Amino acid sequence: MIAHAGGDALPVVEHPHLLKNYNRAPITIVRGEGVWLIDDRGERYLDLVAGIAVCALGHAHPAIVGAIAAQASTLVHCSNLYFHEPAGELANKIAALTGFDRVFFCNSGTEANEAAIKLARKRAFRLGQTERNVILACRNSFHGRTFGALAATDNPKYQEGFGPLPGGFAFTPLNEIAALEAAIDEKTAAFIVEPVQGESGVIPATREFLEAARGITAERGALLIFDEIQTGMGRMGTLFAFQHFGVGPDAVTVAKALANGLPIGALLVTEEASVALQPGDHGTTFGGSPVPCAAALAHLNLRDRMDLDAHVKEMSALLFAELGSIADEYPERFEKPRGIGLLVGLPVKPPHETKPIVAAALHEHLLVNGAGHNTLRFAPPLIIGENELREGMRRLRRAIAAA
To answer: How many CB atoms lie within 10 A of CB 45?
Structure first.
């Protein structure tokens, strides 16, 4: 049942049988068009969230819709007991674009990180290094909500009440090379790192830190894994963040924007590391199903015909300029923006908080969200234009004034 309040108030939305594990905004979205979402009253919202960095090419892109419909009319599922063309073609495309040799498909970013964790430990086992079983991650990391990925997530808010978590995980500060060098030893199976910590407040790694991670892991026999769930698929102004930084990991995990809205994740891995997982070691029922693979392939093929990376860099410069201007206008409320490409955070200074601004923005028909340590996160569709971005910033200014 949905009831709407009168006047300018937001609607009161009731869906009594949904599990109450989300603090959902009080609107019901029924349709999307490019960078806009439309609710059940016909109200249009400028979307600077993109499903949390998911809808890279916007909502309901006609070419992706067409690919989904065409694939659904021929083959929706056949299981991984057999080959099917969409998964094979997508793996070939990803390999050609990234230089990785093997691809494992799953359903989400969490599952991709689970696969990477299992790969690292199985590799050490197959090498006879049974003591090499520690997965090293960064402080303030976020790698997912299943038990393995949650154990690699250094955030008590997500872990509270779910213990005991699996053992064999350790943490080191982001961007502290000396600490990283001390943390990686003969027991380290892998170091997993987000090139930009999205959930913790859009905190980029430094090139020097990632270069050091590459050198130390290679020297000491551990894998280097980049968690590119948020940073991948063009959000940095390159297809992947490892290309932006010029650092080649042994494995990359990707999901979110890969199929522009359909559930799919992937583990990209070098040939040397891939041999760790043999038949029966790991699997999934729905991972790499034909329909999301067709959507992902359409997404990648569209990128071939668009100068999207240059556009992302141009819009990133504009977004940083606008948010920097806001920080200058309200120095008591905001720090300077940080991030890379179109994954940008505007830190809010205590005692001010993000929640009132997010709520006020909703009244302005602008969708933004808060992340991590009191930070406004902006991850709009990569196709957003200058006029739409400037309009979003005008609405944000009104929301800040109202909040």
So the answer is: 22
